[in-house]
Amino acid sequence: MTVALSADEARRIILRAQGLLGAGSRRGGAPATLRRLGAVQLDTISVLARSHELVAYARLGAVGRQDVERAYWDDPAQAFEYWCHAACVLPIDHWPLYAFRRRYFHARRYRWHELPDSVDKILEQVREHGPITTADIGGAKKGGPWWDWSDSKIAIEWLLDTGAVVCTRRVGWRRVYDLAERAIPARLLAEDPSDAECVTRLAGIAGRALGVATRADLVDFLRLKPAAAALLDGALLGGDAGLTPVRVSGWPDRSASAWADPAALETEPRGRHRTTLLSPFDSLVWDRGRTARVFGFNHRLEAYVPREKRVHGYFTMPVLAGGRLIGRVDPAREGSTLVGRQVSLEPGVNRHRGAGALADALWEAASWVGCDAVRVDRVDPDLSTPLQEALAR
User: Fold this and answer.
1) pLDDT per residue over 232-290, tens digit each?
2) What are the C-alpha distances in Å from 318 to residues 31, 221, 326, 337?
3) For position 234, what pLDDT does the model report?
4) 300-338-273-283 Cα dihedral, nearest 10 degrees
5) Can you name the residues that pair with 113 across neighbouring β-strands?
6) Which neighbouring-strand residues pair with 344?
């Protein structure tokens, strides 16, 4: 039976699933947040903090940054790094479920670059001297651009892709590699699910994390290639993924047919909404098409856009308030001052209420990163006065 949802009901279910609506969703701190989300994307860009820290902050408020790091990289391992939506931190219990992807990489025997002859040698170094970083095996680069990897870096990353080695912690943002047999609990290593079982179980995890999701949303969450996407179809249609078919009125016809976590349909989402800045790599907004469909918000990361062509800024962070994406902030930090290099509200948002929400989000973020002042450089003229007044309160 297909359940009918309004677009507003779907949006609130999504917010609760993502830990951004209701106090109960924030219990358990950063470790519980990782389990709830199923995957936290990693990125090298650090503005205010790295993206994986910002994801926890958006849900938990001024959580200790060391607490966040311990939730991801601790001993014994609670998480590992692997390919999901992108390079992500994943709960350690999900290790067996990525066997389908490890098998794919092993059969492919290619990783952006041709595999060097040194793969076996690097594996032996990890076995004898691990845990190790790329610095221990000759460095990551040949000396050119960032993508000009050394043979040792290509080899160790292929070993990571295929599951011979694993990264369960970082030191100074460097991956620390060790043999999977030393880093992954034996009970998880002993599991050997089929490709179909992997995709089926991951579809359930992705569906619960997203709350309400179309087939395309699930494929994007897991970045499934055609063969795996066909397995997803079987899991959804056969009911094995444990998700309930829904139809969302107000979504475009091609996206109206979706899937929901049945537990999320049992109770109405209630509670306090978070007011916060969101990383552009946050799973609430990492899929641009889904973000436009759910929130009517068109967002694009402009970090890789030439400066003169940027519209909203280098690392524009959407602003969530009242369960809506109401504006954008391009933040920076200058000493003890958090700077909004460019701040804007979405059309139709009340300027005074929106200014208050923007000020709250900016001050909370400032406090979290140790700033005691907030400055705004560029702002729409009709927002300037109410925002300055709200920041001064």
Assistant:
1) 999 999 999 999 999 999 999 888 899 999 999 999 999 999 999 999 999 999 999 99
2) 24, 20, 8, 20
3) 96
4) 40
5) 111
6) 328
HEC per residue, the chain: CCEEEEHHHHHHHHHHHCCCECHHHHCCHHHHHHHHHCCEECCCCEECEEHHHHHHHHHHCCCCHHHHHHHHCCCCCCEEEEECCCEEEEEHHHHHHHHHHHHHHHHHCCECECCCCCHHHHHHHHHHHCCECHHHHCCCECCCCCCCECHHHHHHHHHHHHCCEEEEEEECCEEEEEEHHHHCCHHHHCCCCCHHHHHHHHHHHHHHHHCEECHHHHHHHHCCCHHHHHHHHHHHHCCCCCCEEEEEECCCHHHHEEEECHHHHCCCCCCCECCEECCCCCCCCCCHHHHHHHHCCCCCCCCCCCHHHCCCCCCCEEEEECCEEEEEEEEEEECCEEEEEEEEECCCCCHHHHHHHHHHHHHHHHHHCCCCEEEECCECHHHHHHHHHHHHC
Residue that wins the pLDDT comparison between 74 and 179: 179
> Residue for token digits 């297909």?
2
Does 27 have pLDDT greater than 90? no
d(CA 104, CA 28): 35
- The residue assigned the tokens 């009340």 is 350
245, β-bridge pairs:
259
Give me the residues paired with residue 132 across strands: 177
pLDDT of residue 108: 87
Residue 120 CA to residue 177 CA, distance in Å, equals 15
More confident of the two residues 27 and 358:
358
The residue type found at 138 is G
Q: How far is CA 258 from CA 75, 91, 165, 213, 222, in A?
A: 39, 26, 37, 5, 16
Q: In which region does residue 156 sit, left (phi positive, over 0), alpha (psi from -120 to 50) or beta (all else)?
A: alpha
Strands of the 3-6 sheet, one edge to the other:
3-6, 244-249, 257-260, 212-213
Q: Are 141 and 149 in contact (CB under 8 A)?
A: yes
Written as six digits, the tokens of 191 are: 């599991």
d(CA 336, CA 372): 6
Number of residues assigned to the chain = 393
Pair of tokens at residue 31: 């470790």
Neighbours of 253 (CB within 10 A): 6
What's the pLDDT score for residue 147? 58
